[in-house]
User: Which sequence fits this backbone?
């Protein structure tokens, strides 16, 4: 009887717990069944084992080469359209100054490519240029604010007060500001991807009539929208984008696979027929074939193309054929997706976390992949390199598109084609990888537990409140944060929080964020916050903290307890402001990246005062500064550091700083940037270093630097070098040409009002020492591909025959220039990019005239005079 009662009591007291366990088991079985169904549906197989018992070769073991500095792909199928439409741009109508061009057609035909190339070709003829992308969920306020910001930057560079006020402007104020900006200016505006006539009518009502010359280019998938944009015959113009014929389709295909036969084989023709002449389909299918070819030997790649063409052709089933349809594009993207290895599938679907049309930083994406645990070490490669490999593979498969390149040749940012973005949004929803709220594409309400949440517009917050958020691991917010505050306690296991560019982030809300104890990634970049609360120490697992382009000047003392911190990203490089380096920061011994910190030196005068004034602030400041400099060398895991030096350094301070830099360089340091604000450290101490940083890949030295360190020729791994223009002489070029691995060389000068007279005096002396011109020697620079000069005054530059044999691009930004000679001696040169003061365009015109004789692309951007003086 006692046992019976005991058993019943046990059953009664454990009823709820057993019910919960049973529910969890049922959910697990259901999820397992869904996984099994998806594997069957997408043809996923178990990892194959070779006969010798080893795993099959990982497709990413043979990594695609990184993108080049300049993409040389030619536009295919739009040449005639560009030539015809350029004439329309220049045609004048006495009755009206503002005219409209509408380009319409099926998604993926290249409407945006055509429009942007047109704007690039004629853009120099307009005083103001703007680009905006419209989404299906149209927001006029966002569009107007973007245009006003762009025109403000072009007309009033550096006028920060108005830039801040733009964020607070209402619709009526934005319209008035836009009219003021464009009233007496010629302007060119590209409005991409309009989805409805009503959206166009609202936009059109907001555009002012130009008193000089206004051109508005619109792209849309719908003919009805295009017709609404172009109601005036013989004034406005309607252009329908057409499919590519067989020859042009194959030319585009060969741009992705240059080693393909010059003339299409039957197998290639059959494969392209399934692409229906759609450029998007052709590019991604070519990327799929290229990925299969990369896994074979070079001999097979040259002689067995047809086998791969036929293999992909078989997998595509029907494809598009002669009829363009969304379902047909989906089948092609399905084949490309199913060919990816599992980890790359996850990396691709993760891109849906960012809004449609968004330009995303490559570094930001890779850090997010790592924080989510999608990237692991492979064959001894660190996770960062594996992430780079994954990114390059997606680029080479044409699933993501390169936006801009950094000066080291790597991709700086990227974007995704709308149809690819639509595909991955729905696929990631189906796989329960990403749940998107308020996005461009309407996805079903999640039937499973939400794991990763992306809130792209605050209008979708009602659906968020209906979700179970206790299992959310990552949260990305691209709009207002205010509406999420009440939900924060529900995010119990949140590990990744990305609030970049988020609005309404007050100090109290940041404190709330600091209660999320499991965070390992936190981005508050461009949020406008001005302080980090002491409660940041609660985030003991934090590894990445991004507070760049905020108003945060100093971190609280409690940050010293964040011993897992690997990447501390701070400051604003464009404004040359940074975070104060404190003793607490030097306790973060796991730091790999320390980007944007200020170090204040102490002069001998401060030392003398501190002897006589016990407890004086100068004494305390000196003690603190010395402690920081001593502890800096303890950060032996640092791979990247950017330092801003201020004040005056005496002999002891310089010795401590130099010792720390030398010690870090002997450990893991690969990137060193020093911005010297008249401290004398560059010329005095660093120049005389006896232990140069021989393992650096990147070195940036800004400020007053009158001579190049003699040890620089010993940096055999150096690929990217930035020096102050004050060091530029013919002798400097003779030294640098011996740096064997140099890919990018930049001479720049931040010409503030305080240092402009000094800098100008040094520049004039350098020109005299170089007999009036700077000669680029005919030897050395064997791997240099990018050469940049950015300064108020550009001396005469002469390239001798045989100089820089691999140079692809030259960037010049100046207020005045004495001339550039010898461009015809650079056989690999493809592009010259000129940024010139609106008051001084004569030199740019001379370079353009020279370039026209040697078939060279020249891009000219005029800037407001204040941007160079700032």
Assistant:
């Amino acid at each position: 009887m006692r046992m019976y009662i005991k058993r019943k009591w046990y059953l009664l007291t454990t009823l709820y717990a057993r019910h919960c366990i049973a529910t969890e088991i049922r959910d697990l079985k259901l999820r397992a069944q869904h996984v099994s169904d998806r594997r069957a549906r997408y043809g996923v197989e178990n990892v194959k084992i070779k006969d010798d018992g080893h795993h099959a070769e990982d497709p990413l073991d043979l990594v695609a080469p990184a993108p080049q500095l300049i993409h040389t792909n030619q536009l295919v199928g739009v040449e005639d359209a560009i030539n015809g439409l350029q004439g329309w741009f220049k045609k004048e109508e006495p009755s009206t100054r503002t005219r409209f061009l509408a380009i319409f057609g099926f998604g993926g035909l290249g409407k945006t490519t055509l429009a942007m190339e047109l704007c690039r070709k004629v853009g120099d003829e307009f005083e103001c240029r703007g680009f905006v992308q419209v989404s299906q969920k149209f927001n006029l306020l966002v569009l107007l604010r973007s245009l006003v910001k762009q025109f403000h930057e072009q007309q009033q560079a550096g006028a920060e007060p108005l830039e801040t006020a733009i964020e607070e402007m209402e619709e009526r104020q934005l319209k008035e500001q836009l009219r003021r900006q464009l009233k007496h200016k010629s302007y060119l505006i590209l409005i991409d991807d309009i989805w409805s006539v009503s959206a166009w009518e609202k936009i059109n009502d907001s555009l002012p009539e130009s008193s000089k010359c206004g051109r508005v280019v619109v792209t849309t998938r719908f003919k009805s929208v295009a017709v609404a944009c172009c109601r005036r015959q013989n004034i406005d113009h309607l252009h329908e984008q057409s499919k590519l014929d067989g020859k042009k389709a194959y030319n585009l295909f060969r741009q992705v696979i240059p080693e393909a036969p010059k003339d299409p084989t039957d197998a290639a023709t059959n494969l392209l027929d399934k692409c229906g002449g759609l450029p998007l389909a052709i590019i991604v299918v070519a990327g799929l074939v290229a990925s299969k070819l990369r896994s074979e030997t070079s001999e097979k790649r040259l002689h067995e193309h047809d086998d791969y063409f036929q293999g992909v052709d078989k997998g595509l089933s029907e494809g598009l054929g002669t009829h363009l349809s969304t379902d047909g594009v989906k089948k092609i993207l399905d084949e490309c997706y199913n060919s990816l290895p599992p980890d790359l599938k996850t990396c691709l679907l993760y891109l849906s976390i960012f809004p449609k049309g968004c330009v995303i930083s490559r570094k930001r994406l890779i850090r997010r992949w790592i924080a989510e645990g999608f990237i692991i070490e492979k064959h001894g490669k660190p996770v960062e390199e594996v992430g780079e490999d994954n990114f390059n593979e997606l680029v080479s498969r044409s699933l993501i598109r390169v936006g801009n390149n950094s000066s080291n040749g790597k991709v700086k940012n990227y974007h995704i084609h709308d149809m690819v973005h639509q595909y991955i949004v729905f696929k990631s929803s189906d796989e329960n990888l990403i749940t998107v709220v308020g996005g461009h594409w309407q996805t079903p309400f999640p039937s499973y537990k939400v794991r990763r949440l992306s809130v792209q517009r605050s209008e979708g917050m009602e659906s968020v409140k209906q979700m179970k958020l206790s299992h959310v691991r990552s949260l990305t917010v691209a709009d207002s944060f205010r509406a999420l505050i009440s939900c924060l306690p529900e995010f119990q296991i949140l590990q990744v929080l990305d609030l970049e560019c988020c609005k309404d982030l007050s100090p109290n809300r940041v404190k709330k964020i600091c209660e999320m104890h499991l965070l390992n990634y936190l981005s508050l970049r461009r949020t406008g916050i001005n302080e980090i609360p002491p409660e940041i120490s609660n985030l003991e697992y934090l590894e990445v903290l991004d507070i760049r382009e905020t108003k945060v000047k100093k971190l609280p003392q409690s940050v010293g307890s964040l011993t897992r911190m690997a990447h501390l990203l701070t400051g604003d490089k464009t404004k040359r402001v940074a975070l104060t380096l404190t003793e607490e920061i030097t306790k973060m011994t796991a730091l790999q990246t320390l980007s944007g910190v200020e170090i204040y030196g102490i002069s001998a005068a401060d030392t003398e005062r501190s002897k006589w004034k016990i407890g004086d602030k100068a004494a305390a400041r000196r003690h603190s500064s010395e402690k920081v400099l001593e502890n800096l060398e303890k950060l032996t895991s640092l791979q990247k550091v950017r330092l801003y030096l201020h004040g005056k350094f005496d002999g002891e301070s310089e010795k401590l700083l130099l010792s720390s830099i030398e010690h870090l360089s002997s450990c893991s340091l690969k990137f060193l940037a020093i911005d010297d604000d008249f401290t004398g450290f560059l010329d005095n101490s660093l120049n005389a270093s006896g232990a140069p940083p021989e393992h650096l890949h990147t070195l940036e030295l800004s400020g007053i630097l009158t001579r190049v360190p003699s040890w620089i020729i010993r940096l055999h791994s150096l690929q990217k070098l930035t020096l102050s223009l004050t060091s530029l002489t013919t002798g400097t070029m003779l030294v640098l040409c011996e740096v064997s691995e140099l890919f990018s060389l930049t001479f720049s000068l931040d010409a503030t009002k305080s240092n402009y007279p000094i800098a100008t005096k040094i520049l004039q002396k350098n020109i005299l020492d170089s007999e009036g011109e700077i000669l680029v020697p005919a030897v050395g620079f064997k791997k240099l591909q990018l050469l940049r000069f950015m300064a108020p005054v550009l001396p005469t530059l002469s390239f001798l025959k045989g100089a820089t044999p691999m140079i692809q691009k030259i960037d010049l930004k100046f207020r005045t220039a004495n001339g550039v000679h010898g461009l015809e001696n650079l056989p690999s040169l493809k592009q010259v990019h000129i940024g010139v003061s609106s008051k001084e365009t004569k030199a740019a015109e001379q370079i353009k005239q020279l370039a026209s004789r040697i078939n060279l692309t020249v891009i000219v951007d005029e800037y407001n005079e204040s941007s160079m003086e700032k």
Notes: The first strand starts at residue 98 and ends at 104.
